[in-house]
Amino acid sequence: MTTKKVAIACQGGGTHAAFTWGVLAEILETKRKWEADNEAKFEITALSGTSAGALCALATWYGLVPNTADAECGTLAKAVERLNFLWTTFAATTPAEKTLNAAVAMGLGLKKMGVPLPDGNPDGVATNLAMSSLAMMGARDVYLGFPALLAELCPDFATIDWPQVARTKTRMIAGAIEIKSGNFEAFDSHKTLEEMGLRPPRRDDEQYRVTRWRMRRALSLEGVAASGTLPEVLPAQKIPDMLFPTCTPGKTIRRDAYYWDGLYSQNPPIRLLLDAETRDEKPDEIWVVRINPQELGREVSGMADIHDRINDLAGNLSVNAELDHIMSLNKWLKKYGSDHPTLAEFKPVEIRTIKMRPESAWGLHSSTKLDRGHQHMQDLHDEGREVTKEWLAGWRQYGDDFAAYPDDARYSESSER
Question: How far is CA 361 from CA 125, 151, 303, 364, 365, in A?
């Protein structure tokens, strides 16, 4: 029985990524059942994500890789447990958090109706005072900021068994953008292995000598926090003493780096998933968990709708570009074959999409991406599980004939009417 090597790429989209929580939980639970029945059909070789998608990818990866301080790590069950922990912890729980969540929803609702409310300043004194007041009133540190949340999500990050990760080659990538340079930056577990001498460095890795506007960094909790730093809400994530190239060939500088949400770079990182030592190490399939709908089944009317649609389109710009690149490679491989010297290191990679039902995708708004209410996120989780259960049944039944990108990113004509 052929086992497919699968990489899962998770789009960002605020709390709408609770859908991804359900998707990943169902994938993991189904994999566990199929393995118990001796019917394993896929191996998860890599996860990538941006923003809340990066949080989901990290929770899953952390549970899947061995850890010298936690014997439960390195299992499908631990990955599911970490996903559940992430989203139940992230939800508004205390009275102060629920009050804040309701106030944010009210403010965004008033703005949507055209009420001219002032914009907040995440770096302002008023915001800092408000955060301190919320903490005094009972808002948890894990609710108010990503560093505390990620520290609890991955309490033994420092004791990950990296030599074993090198052997299994299970990869994790989070995307972010560095504000000053404008670099698309990826926090990559493979880069960690390279720096530890557990994986050979890439032959063409010139990122510290040549300005290319793309950088790979070692995976860190700070890097994943950077991926989720929405500039309208949170101050830029600072990571000190980072190395950058300069305009002078071969000359580098060290400085503090400042990061914003990966929405402005790669949403999510996909091309890097094909960056492997050998063709055999590359994934056979990439499953893209799409949060931002490509198509819209209703009219755009008014500034609120315009803002929502701009948000969707911005979230899809980079993913469509990266997927089109892979589609072009697939086309060339089909035409010329991998024996062609230029294509010798590549192999065809099938892309598949897991997406929300149209009524959900078109019923959500950019404002609901900030809704941290438990029921809102639980509903999206439940839909993610239901959709993925059906999706996996189809994938298993139809095999290579199962729906693939770009057609599967669309909704049926009947749903567009």
Answer: 37, 31, 19, 6, 9
CA distance 290 to 176: 18
Name the pairing type of β-strands 285-290 and 4-10. Answer: parallel
Phi, psi of 352 (to 5 degrees): -130, 150
Count of all residues that appear for the chain in the document: 417
**Helices marked H in 37-160:** 52-64, 76-90, 95-112, 125-136, 141-144, 146-153
Question: pLDDT tens, position by position, for the chain (417 residues)?
Answer: 588 999 999 999 999 999 999 999 999 999 999 998 887 789 999 999 999 999 999 999 999 999 999 999 999 999 999 999 999 999 999 999 999 999 888 887 767 766 666 666 677 766 777 778 888 888 999 998 999 999 999 999 999 999 999 999 999 999 999 999 999 999 999 999 999 999 998 876 778 877 678 899 999 999 999 999 988 888 899 999 999 988 888 789 999 999 998 888 889 999 999 988 788 889 999 999 999 999 888 888 888 788 888 888 888 888 999 999 999 999 999 888 888 787 888 899 999 999 999 999 999 988 899 999 999 999 999 999 999 999 999 999 999 999 999 999 998 764 554
Q: For the chain, first and last CA: distance in Å?
A: 42
Q: Looking up tokens 């949403």, which residue turns up?
A: 267
- Tracing tokens 């990826």 back to the chain, one arrives at 186
Q: What's the longest Cα–Cα distance across the chain?
A: 65
Per residue, what are the HEC states of 254-300?
Answer: EEEEEEEEHHHCCCCCCHHHHCCCCHHHCCCEEEEEECCCCCCCCCC
Token digits of residue 40: 């394993």
8 Å CB contact between 196 and 223: no
> Measuring CA to CA, how many Å separate 251 from each of 75, 158, 180, 207, 215?
44, 32, 18, 11, 16
Q: Which amino acid makes up residue 375?
A: Q
| One-letter-per-residue 3-state SS of 328-349 | HHHHHHHHHCCCCHHHCCCCCC
Q: Which residues of 81-111 are buried (b: 16+ CB within 10 A; e: fewer)?
A: bbbeebbeebbbbeebbbebbeebbebbeeb
